[in-house]
Amino acid sequence: MSFETIAWKDDKVVMLNQLVLPHEVRYETYEDFRDVAAAIKNMVIRGAPAIGIAAAMGIALGAKDLKNDGFESFRKGIDEICEVMSHTRPTAVNLFWAIERMKRFIDTRKDQDVPTLQQLLIEEAQKVLTEDIENNRRLGEFGAQFVKDGDTILTHCNAGALATGGYGTATSVIRVAHEQGKSVRVLCDETRPYLQGARLTAWELHQDNIPAEVITDNMAGHFIKSGEVDLCVVGTDRTAANGDVANKIGTYMVALAAHANDVPFYVAAPTSSIDMSLSTGTQIPIEERSAKEVTHIKDHQLTPDGVPARHVAFDVTPARYVTALITENGVASPPYVFTLPTVMPKI
Ligand code: MRU
User: Fold this and answer.
1) Rounded to whole angstroms, what are the CA distances from 137 to 33, 46, 110, 179?
2) Which CATH homologous superfamily contains domain 140-343?
3) Where are the domains of the chain?
4) Ligand 1 centre and the CA of 35: distance in Å?
5) Which atom of ligand 1 is the closest one to the Cα of 169?
6) Is the CB–ligand 1 distance for residue 295 below 6 Å?
């Protein structure tokens, strides 16, 4: 990979700034956990698994600055840091998964002194990153079986290396198929309003010489119906226990078009993106962002003064439109209430 999405370097968190891509490759360095939280909120880093990694590193960063006043006081400080992290973005469950993982890690080491815990949290945050990369690679290997030589694959948003620690989720399926020598072509939905497909997916596929073309979101139905698309692969920010999939706004329309035209619609996700505590997708909190992200592109206003706009950032695709869920522990097929528990890790 020619870039790193996020890394822990010299006791600081370093992130590739996704706000300035594809025109500038700029890394930002963070020394304060509050700035890491702001970077998640402002989308310097985005994508469900990457948000989880950033939160884990932010907690380790904050923990490093807590006073050596005994376990109870340290634990209270961790809760305060986690509270700040938890208010950054509501939909990606990986954020809450990472927060719980870091808390659980401390709670099972109450006998350790504070400096040891501070060091162990740094190592645990780095483990969240390395495990994510390994899991993505594994799910890509499971998913590549669905890609044939010569296929055209449609993807929505950015479920790539930039959205994860590396490889990506949907993009890992594409990358592994490409590495296996299959000729693939990718149609990247531009993904209004934040343009993750046009700016980020197109950029990272191009870096790896994987043929990619950008289409506007409203062209997806046309390409699917015309027979040009062999399969769709997307990621997810949170999938419920019944297989309902929350992903970037517009995913539902892609799934509907795929279903209507008998084109397979796959969702690739590490199990850290699956929320078994929610029985259906209706319980998934959906982020609503500033309307300015719809009315404007950068500082250029597109819409008339005085007309309000809405920016719903995610939608939920019902499980019945999902052909299979590809995870690092194998592929789950419908009915997901029975198959998802078999791929979930036993804690
Ligand atoms: O708002 P974003 O850019 O954080 O949304 C990202 C997505 O919707 C991705 O498709 C999802 O996180 C899957 S990423 C592996």
Assistant:
1) 29, 19, 34, 12
2) Translation initiation factor eif-2b; domain 2 (3.40.50.10470)
3) 6-137, 140-343
4) 21
5) 15
6) no
d(CA 262, CA 241) in angstroms, rounded, equals: 24
| 107: annotated active-site residue | no
CATH architecture of 6-137: Up-down Bundle (1.20)
Q: Of 189, 237, 244, 275, which one is the catalytic site residue? A: 237
- Minimal-distance CA residue to ligand 1 atom 2: 47
Polymer length in residues for the chain: 347
Reported as half-sphere exposure (CB side, CA atoms, 13 A), residue 97 has a value of 25
Could you give the CA distance from residue 49 to residue 65 in angstroms, rounded to a whole number?
25
Cβ of 48 less than 6 Å from ligand 1: yes
Tens place of pLDDT for every residue, the chain, 347 residues? 789 999 999 999 999 999 999 999 999 999 999 999 999 999 999 999 999 999 999 999 999 999 999 999 999 999 999 999 999 999 999 999 999 999 999 999 999 999 999 999 999 999 999 999 999 999 999 999 999 999 999 999 999 999 999 999 999 999 999 999 999 999 999 999 999 999 999 999 999 999 999 999 999 999 999 999 999 999 999 999 999 999 999 999 999 999 999 999 999 999 999 999 999 999 999 999 999 999 999 899 999 999 999 999 999 999 999 999 999 999 999 999 999 999 999 86
